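Morning!

This is the sequence you dropped in the shared folder:
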Amino acid sequence: MYGTFFRMKVKAGHEGQLLDSLGSHKPKGMIGWFMMKPDNPEEDFVGCAIFEDKKAHMDNANSPEQNEVYNNFMKHLESEPSWIDGEYIAGEIL
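The structure's back. Tokens below.
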């Protein structure tokens, strides 16, 4: 599996709209995604996206559909997200 972790600073009052825009896109090869809202309101939201493999992740990242999704959710952020891409080597959902 392959994917990305990301941090994003959401504009005040835009949380619901951001989550709606993220949940509307279901790219080929995506296994799932998670978003965490920290207890401390001063902290950035943290999320992860999980794909079957690096190819599926890169195909999505380079697709016109993902560009449209990205431009839409940027309307709800204070600044560009930070990204860490890589291979998931362990994990479990109980």
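Headline: Helices lie at 15-23, 54-61, 64-74.

More detail when I'm at my desk.
O.
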